[in-house]
């Protein structure tokens, strides 16, 4: 929907409108010239994100692209460890923090490597939830001070790998999720002569909150109930492996929005820990799992896309609650383990997309159609449009909806021709736009008209796939901040939803962050003759690894950015990764490139023999086909200087 232009606008107003300061956590902002910026270390050093895009384009990489700010990733690792260290010091806590990064949140080598390097001074370890992840952890993990936590379902090969790590001197802790796993651990320990380090995952009764609330409780997928924990203790004692039990673990779900839920879970788990210690097991570690959230919408509430606490408050509440319970039970407080993944990696990455087209259902509003023989339904809609002073907003809207439905019914029955149907549609949208303008002036919106702006919103077609790059938005309704990367000194005058280039109608972003509630559209700028780039922020958790190749759109281009004071623009691209080619995604679904080319050549040769094609034309067509296998899967974009100008329709 087109908004009325305003004479006065500023970068500060855009910063407020899109919420940069609320969800940016000191890392994202808008500069005075209207460009979105990132401050990877939260200090005065800034990078214009559009500068990164332009440099990547100069390297031959076009949007869609993922930009990783590696300094920001390292900063998040340091920040997590430092807030726990501070809380431990303030609470005079005798234990220490021993965090681990859950590989499942982002398994990409370049991400895991940076986290390991950033966590070196903190003995920051890794968590694996499958055999392949454990293989990554064993190879990437160095030294004997960092933990490797083994979660998930475990077969004998998984357990053998964990014991291999123990044999190498690594602190590998096997967390028992199902009672049957303990029998296998005991048998393999006897077979190999390796003493395992064991943890129990407790199935808490504290209920989780948010999208992953079912991670706890009686019907939770993982964990031991109280009776099973007692049986497991008996098995360990009978096998003379009591000294192997070192850890109590729990997990109440990802993105926990309410700090009270975390406090309650920590209290319950601390009671389990103390009881096991009193039963004679050495213990020493309490793993509070994941759950530390990201404030995607910046509202600082217990809404599922937000969190009503800070990272520092999270650490302080965990430390103080464990200390309080252990002191009351006269049990030495354990070292604290957390498996925070989303909070570590989500902020460091953003997805950049280019808007390539606009879909406007009211495009022909300025060209009022007059059918040669006007039907009564069209005349009736014209009367509704013209009788604004006499009829109320709600009455006109009801009349317009009813008459539009009648027009479609008449068309289906053969009583309305194409010209009159077009005129009826055109008048309907004129009436809706008229009502929407009146609502903005009066401020009051009747409940039945709440959806009007959503109906009138334009669709901005963006060169990307929701299923590949933002799967959580489609599958879980996860909200991500969306904002233009430039033109932020101009007032956005178009209400829009974003649609991708897949052939699926679900391939769209139609829910956006808002301070008060979820928005059905995002304010954007009219398209001009130059590329228009949008940033989709906080996408570093899960989106990189969970993407689906719907329509065979593959992995997007990617650049890794570091701060560099000696560079004029303050950064350099340390590494670039080219996105998937058509041929590569073909092979992912078992089509060999050579075989496809051979089949095409056979058909072209046949067409040449039949004189359907000339020989040279056939050669050019085969070259075209072969060349497309090397191209990227997304829409091709020409260099800025050669791209044809977009026609902007005046209104």
Automatic annotation (TrEMBL):
The keyword Lipoprotein does not apply. Signal peptide: none annotated. InterPro entries: Ala_racemase/Decarboxylase_C, Arg_decarb_HB, Arg_decarbox_C, Arg_decrbxlase, De-COase2_CS, De-COase2_N, De-COase2_pyr-phos_BS, Orn/DAP/Arg_de-COase. It holds the Pfam family Arg_decarbox_C. PROSITE patterns: ODR_DC_2_1, ODR_DC_2_2. It comes from Cephaloticoccus capnophilus. The active site is at 503 (proton donor). Keywords: Decarboxylase, Lyase, Magnesium, Metal-binding, Polyamine biosynthesis, Pyridoxal phosphate, Spermidine biosynthesis. Residues 92-346 form the Orn/DAP/Arg decarboxylase 2 N-terminal domain. Transmembrane segments: none annotated. The keyword Repeat does not apply. The modification N6-(pyridoxal phosphate)lysine is found at residue 104. Residues 582-635 form the Arginine decarboxylase C-terminal helical domain. This is Arginine decarboxylase. Its cofactor is Mg(2+); pyridoxal 5'-phosphate. PANTHER family: ARGININE DECARBOXYLASE, BIOSYNTHETIC ARGININE DECARBOXYLASE. Residues 372-453 form the Arginine decarboxylase helical bundle domain. GO terms for molecular function: arginine decarboxylase activity; metal ion binding. Belongs to the Orn/Lys/Arg decarboxylase class-II family. SpeA subfamily. Its EC number is 4.1.1.19. GO terms for biological process: L-arginine catabolic process; putrescine biosynthetic process from arginine; spermidine biosynthetic process. It is an enzyme of class 4 (lyase). Gene3D superfamilies: 1.20.58.930, Alanine racemase, Lyase, Ornithine Decarboxylase, Chain A, domain 1. Catalyzes the biosynthesis of agmatine from arginine.
């Amino acid at each position: 929907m087109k908004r009325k232009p305003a004479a006065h606008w500023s970068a500060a107003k855009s910063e407020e409108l899109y919420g940069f300061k609320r969800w940016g956590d000191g890392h994202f902002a808008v500069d005075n010239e209207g460009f979105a910026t990132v401050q990877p270390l939260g200090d005065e050093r800034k990078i214009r994100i559009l500068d990164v895009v332009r440099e990547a384009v100069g390297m031959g990489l076009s949007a869609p692209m993922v930009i990783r700010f590696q300094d920001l990733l390292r900063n998040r690792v340091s920040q997590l460890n430092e807030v726990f260290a501070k809380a431990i010091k303030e609470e005079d806590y005798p234990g220490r923090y021993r965090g681990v990064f859950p590989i499942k949140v982002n398994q990409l080598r370049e991400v895991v490597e940076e986290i390991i390097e950033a966590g070196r001074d903190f003995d920051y370890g890794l968590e694996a939830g499958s055999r392949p992840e454990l293989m990554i952890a064993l190879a990437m993990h160095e030294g004997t001070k960092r933990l490797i936590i083994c979660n998930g379902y475990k077969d004998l090969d998984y357990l053998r790998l964990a014991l291999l790590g123990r044999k190498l001197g690594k602190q590998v802790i096997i967390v028992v999720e199902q009672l049957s796993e303990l029998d296998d651990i005991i048998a393999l320990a006897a077979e190999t002569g390796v003493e395992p380090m064991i943890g129990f995952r407790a199935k808490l009764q504290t209920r989780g909150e948010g999208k992953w609330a079912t991670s706890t409780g009686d019907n939770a997928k993982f964990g031991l109930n109280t009776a099973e924990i007692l049986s497991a203790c008996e098995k360990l004692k009978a096998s003379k492996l009591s000294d192997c039990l070192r850890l109590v673990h729990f997990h109440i779900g990802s993105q926990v929005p309410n700090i009270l839920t975390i406090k309650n879970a920590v209290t319950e788990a601390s009671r389990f820990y103390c009881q096991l210690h009193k039963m004679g097991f050495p213990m020493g570690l309490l793993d509070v799992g994941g759950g530390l959230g990201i404030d995607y919408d910046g509202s600082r509430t217990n809404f599922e896309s937000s969190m009503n606490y800070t990272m520092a408050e999270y650490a302080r509440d965990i430390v103080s609650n464990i200390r309080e319970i252990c002191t009351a039970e006269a049990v030495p407080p354990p070292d604290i383990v957390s498996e925070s993944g989303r909070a570590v990696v989500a902020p460091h990455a953003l997805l950049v997309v280019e808007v390539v087209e606009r879909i406007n259902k009211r495009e022909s509003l300025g060209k009022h159609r007059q059918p040669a023989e006007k039907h009564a339904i069209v005349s009736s809609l014209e009367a509704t449009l013209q009788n604004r002073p006499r009829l109320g907003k709600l009455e006109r809207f009801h009349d317009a909806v009813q008459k539009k439905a009648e027009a479609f019914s008449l068309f289906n029955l053969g009583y309305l021709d194409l010209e009159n149907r077009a005129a009826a549609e055109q008048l309907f949208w004129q009436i809706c736009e008229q009502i929407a303008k009146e609502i903005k002036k009066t401020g009051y919106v009747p409940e039945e008209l709440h959806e009007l702006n959503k109906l009138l919103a334009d669709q901005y077609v963006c060169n990307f796939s929701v299923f590949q790059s933002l799967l959580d938005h489609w599958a879980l309704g996860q909200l991500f901040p969306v904002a233009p990367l430039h033109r932020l000194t101009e007032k956005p005058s178009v209400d829009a939803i974003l649609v991708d280039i897949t052939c699926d109608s679900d391939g769209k972003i139609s829910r956006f962050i808002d301070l008060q509630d979820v928005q059905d559209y995002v304010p954007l700028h009219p398209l001009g003759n130059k590329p228009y780039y949008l940033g989709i922020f906080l996408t570093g958790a899960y989106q990189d690894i969970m993407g689906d190749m719907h329509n065979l759109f593959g992995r997007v281009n990617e650049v890794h950015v570091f701060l560099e004071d000696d560079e004029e623009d303050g950064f350099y691209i340390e590494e670039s990764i080219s996105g998937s080619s058509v041929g590569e995604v073909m092979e992912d679904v078992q089509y060999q490139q050579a075989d496809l080319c051979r089949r095409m050549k056979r058909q072209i040769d046949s067409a040449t023999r039949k004189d359907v094609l000339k020989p040279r034309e056939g050669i050019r067509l085969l070259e075209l086909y072969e060349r497309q296998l090397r191209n990227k899967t997304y829409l091709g974009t020409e260099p800025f200087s050669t791209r044809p100008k977009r026609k902007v329709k005046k209104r």
